[in-house]
Amino acid sequence: MIYQLAGNGRILLTVNDAGEWNDLFFPFPGQFQHLREMRLGLYDVDRRNFHWLRPGNEYTLEVPSSVVGGFPTTVWSGHGVRLSVEEMVHPNHDLVLRILRFRSPEARHLRLFSYQSFKIAESLFQETAYVDPSTSSLVHYKRGYYFEFFGDPAFDAAICGEHTLKGLQGSYVDAEDGRLEGRPIAHGAADSVMQWNIELAPDVESTVRIFLAVGRGGATVHKLRDDVRARGPKRFEKESKAYWSAWAARHAPDGPDDLGERAARMGSESALVLKLATGTNGAVIASPDTRSLVVGGDTYNYCWFRDGGYISEAMDESRLRELSTRFLRFAATCQSPDGSFAHRFFPDGEVGSTWHPPPFLQIDQTATVLSATWRHLERGADPDVLLELWPMVKSAANFLVHFRDRATGLPGPSFDLWEERKGIHAYSSAAVVHGLESAARIAKVLGKETPHWLSTAEEIHTRTLELMWDPALGRFVRSVEPRDEGIDASILLALDLGLLEPSDPRYRSTVELVESRLWSKAVGGLARYEGDEYYGHENPWVVCTLWLAATHLSLGDRARCRELIDWVVSHATPTGLLPEQVDARTGEPKSATPLVWSHAAFLDLVCRYRGTVSRLRDSANSS
Fold first, then answer.
1. How far is it, in rounded angstroms, from Cα 611 to Cα 518?
2. H or E stretch at 370
3. Residue 58 sits in the same domain as residue 83
4. Cα–Cα distance between 7 and 71 in angstroms, integer?
5. CB-hemisphere CA count at 13 Å for 137?
6. At 129, is the secondary structure helix, strand, or coil?
7. What's the angle, vertex CA 20, arms to CA 61 and CA 232, rounded to 5?
């Protein structure tokens, strides 16, 4: 499971709960995942024993309690040695830094080994690895992607080999006797090992810096290597730490105090996750987690415009406005000619995989982009940005106006929020209403004509309440065409978008019904819908629980809202990352972790909660 992250909008590095590199994405977060395996090992020369740094090899592992700070840190203790490892990605150079600090109470003669194998461009073979003794560097490359390792001090030895084929385990076995005997170049399923000799004086720290330059083309990474050496390796460590310290300070938690320190800190952690999941081109991936690739053949490493729209809104609430601008510009490049948005996209803007038949449509995604664009202006974006986005807004709004079901007057059938059922859904209809209203507000600011946008929104709103609220049942149905009476947490999000006013008795009764039917009695938290079997039976989802919290906040029940925030915080990983869902039996994180939408929903709710409290205090002071 991913525990820590570092990145710069081009590189995204994840570190797992065993303290090892898990994923290395480039040139965008989520694309491509180039890493097969990375491990560190120590050989004690005097005692003639070797161990890979892994829990269970008589080493204990410590991880920080927060991802805020911008660089993952792990501390290994065992065999009389303490080793701290800091992982950094330079903010403006495509450079990964590993800072290893050794300490022992007695003199020790050690050898550090770093083993690495790649699956460059997400395939295992046709790769080359070579050692260049003239530059004391080690290079892996394929199809224009280059990865160059070098150190401060320079490594004492390095070899290349192969894995997977020909009955070979991998070159890491060459390190386990404490001596490297391989060759300087290999191709095919290539891997490599580097070695440093370390002399430790008693209680004196010794430092090794391992650098990885990443780029398209050998000349690019060679130049970066030379720049690091010319300007001094310590300088790049200093620059990385200075930048991330400044970033963390800017996004430090601020009141209100009644949220609690841990919840406030998670707001900062969530802001960092949003930043690291966003590419320089504006694409925002749903999650960097790749575990589902093994069992499902696919991942969450895509940009969904539903997730992205809500993430964009959270960015605008939390001093990440530039990232929101990038995302909306990215959306404009991905829009279909008819104004809609397809199911999901690769981070480079190409259409992603799907399990939906043509036209690959979830109508709420198009609507959510419009809502996010209005929120961007509402929270301070320059109107020039909106003018740039106007063609996208106009095309999307016109599509929503024309994508109607003649019999009901509602939006035409499409797949639901959960991407499982095709029909005319209550949440999707509410999202379209909100999207068209947002587009009309944008048009008014820009002085543009808005033919039928508001009138269509009003018609759909009216018809949604007429057809989706069943007086005999005393509640909303999930969908019509086909009719589905299932209890679904997405109706809470529809309420939050304005389907009903909180003063309407149906608002409160809907919240109470959904909470009573979908609340997990074993571990708490709110499930998606009755009978959900995705990764377990009716697992609670973080976003659903936060929608419930938002509706309680709208009803004025801040105490219940705080309780639900505390539930979310208590089900994060030890480093503060939020999963998609929680196991209904054990309470452990389940499925994609971190899920960026979970962090966005948390951040948005905390910002709204703070605003509510601030308004109440202002009112009290004025009276």
1. 28
2. helix 363-378
3. yes
4. 9
5. 21
6. strand
7. 100
Listed as ranges, residues in the chain with pLDDT below 50 are 614-623
DSSP 8-class letter at 574:
T
Give the helix/strand (H/E) hosting 389: helix 383-402
Q: Is 177 exposed, middle or buried (0-12, 13-18, 19+ CB in 10 A)?
A: exposed
Rounded (to 5) percent helix, strand, coil in the chain: 40, 25, 35
Q: What's the pLDDT at 612?
A: 67
pLDDT of residue 617: 41
Name the domain count of the chain.
2
Q: What letter represents residue 37's amino acid?
A: E
The pair phi, psi for residue 317, each rounded to 5°, is -85, -10
How many C-beta atoms surround the C-beta of residue 51 within 10 A?
Answer: 18
pLDDT value for 618: 46
pLDDT of residue 615: 45
Q: Which of 194, 219, 249 is the last residue of a domain?
A: 249
Helices (H), 484-535: 490-496, 505-518
Pinpoint the alpha helices (H) of 101-217. 172-175
Contact 315, 327 (CB under 8 A): yes
Q: Residues near 304 by Cβ (< 8 Å), separated by ≥ 6?
A: 286, 343, 344, 365
541 neighbors 527 (Cβ within 8 angstroms): yes
Chain mean position to CA 417: 19
Q: Sheet containing 540-541: give its strands across.
A: 526-527, 540-541, 581-582, 589-590
Q: Across the beta sheet with 12-16, what order do the strands follow? A: 2-7, 12-16, 21-28, 31-33
Same domain, 422 and 300: yes
- Containing structural domain, residue 447: 266-622
258 found inside a domain: no
The whole-angstrom separation of Cα 30 and Cα 337 is 26
For residues 24 and 147, what is the distance between their CA atoms, to the nearest angstrom? 11
Contacts of 333 (CB under 8 A, 6+ apart): 349
Q: What is the pLDDT of residues 107-140, one digit of tens each?
A: 999 999 999 999 999 999 999 999 999 999 999 9
- What is the reported pTM? 0.96
Query: CATH code at 116?
Result: 2.70.98.10
